[in-house]
Amino acid sequence: MKPQPVVLINPPLSLKERYGKDMQKFGAVSEPLGIAYIAGYLESLGHDVRIVDAQAENLDHRQVAREALRQPGTIIGISVLTPVFNSVQRLCHIIKQTRPEALVVLGGAHCTALPERTLEEIETADIVCIGEGEQTMAGICAHASDGDWSLIKGICYRQDGRIVRNQDREYIQDLDAIPPPARHLLPMHRYHLTASRVSGSDYCPTIIVARGCPFKCTYCSRTFGKSFRAHSVERIIAEIQGLIDTYQIRQINIEADTLTANKRFLTTLCRAMIAAGFPSRLAWTCESRVDTVNAEVLSLMKQAGCWQISYGVETGSQRLLNKISKGVTLKQVEDAFRITMQLGITIRGFFMLGLPTETPAESRMTIDLAKRLDPLYAQFTVTVPYPGTQMFDELQANGEIRTYDWSKYNTWSGWKGERTLPFVSAGRTVEELSGLQKQALREFYIRPRVVLRFLRTISSIYDVQKYLAGFWVLIKSRISPATGR
Prior knowledge:
Layout: E1 5-10, H1 15-19, H2 33-44, E2 48-53, H3 54-57, H4 61-68, E3 75-79, H5 85-98, E4 103-107, H6 109-113, H7 115-121, E5 127-129, H8 134-142, E6 155-159, E7 162-165, E8 206-208, E9 210-211, E10 229-230, H9 233-247, E11 251-255, H10 263-275, E12 283-288, H11 295-303, E13 306-314, H12 318-323, H13 330-342, E14 346-353, H14 360-373, E15 377-382, H15 390-397, H16 413-416, H17 430-445, H18 448-457, H19 461-479
Helix pairs in contact: 2-8, 4-5, 9-10, 10-11, 14-17, 17-19
């Protein structure tokens, strides 16, 4: 196989565009590990790979295009999440305008959900990858010279004026067959997680340990399928140790669709982390479900260095929990929060406002539940039915999707001052939901017990600056309804 020059792009999208003017200072700039995994795999096959992360480097569309087209014959791969779709569309146009013969390949969650539609809407793209991209991009590289795409699984492409979709590609069962993500191609010094997800100002990278989710939440697209597939514990320990050695990290975010879904895997991983001596030098955070933890599991996670868990609560209404197929009860939520806190693990709670059929009274129940549960941090987002989810399909079938302007598919609409939302329940308004998002955050954080709790946790000037900035944003949102625009 002839080695190919490849450039993989994380397209332009500013923090202001994602979070709004005031909330942008708390937003994350995360490593684009999806394209970094693809880069690592292609490098292992001998291809010459570069990554251009426009979001981390603050590059505009023309700067990205110049970087992408620096070398003739380069295969250009672009990551597409729904909110960045319009940005990708513009970038593809500039690339093709400059070099019409360039091969432009798109991939990511949005492409997996709407492959044919993506090619219809972005006429300057040539191929769309569906699902996991490592082996698919390798196949595209292998056929770049002859342009025969017919035997490559997991793609849509243009042929004789029509769009062709090939057979789907099977999910990769042995994740260890994929090399670690090519972090050496990323500007690692520019990344940071959401302010609520880090302890102090130390750098906190992310490591992906598993793919796939067996649960059925209607708001989730499950891009990596329903089956839980994990890296070997030996591989994970080696990757963490490599991050410690290379970047001198003291904290890490352990990522999986649901880390605690497979208790045998989690138990083995925690014990291996303890055996490696990580707890004394490395703190970690993760995401979980309240019905996949118990005192025994949480205690072991604490021993292994876990300091924070993010739980998706979503709503304070049992009716709505059932409607979105969350598969949990409010009692399970309360029990998991109580046990987690008793063991000394802090919590970030995720809550959704404006779910389908949600009433104002049920929105009130969600805010009240968040205050009663009292996690260290609470995040309230406006419900967005993303393509690829059961929620999107049902609302679309009922004619309830208000816009297909993908740039409006953003959960921080309240702080962005959006006048259009993809979905609003009957009898409710954009203004109500956007205002409710701000109100929920104010009610949760501007409470004497919360203010005192944060004051007690201050350990650096960074903490002082972070808390003061957050407090001012909340106060400002009360004074000026237009904040975030």
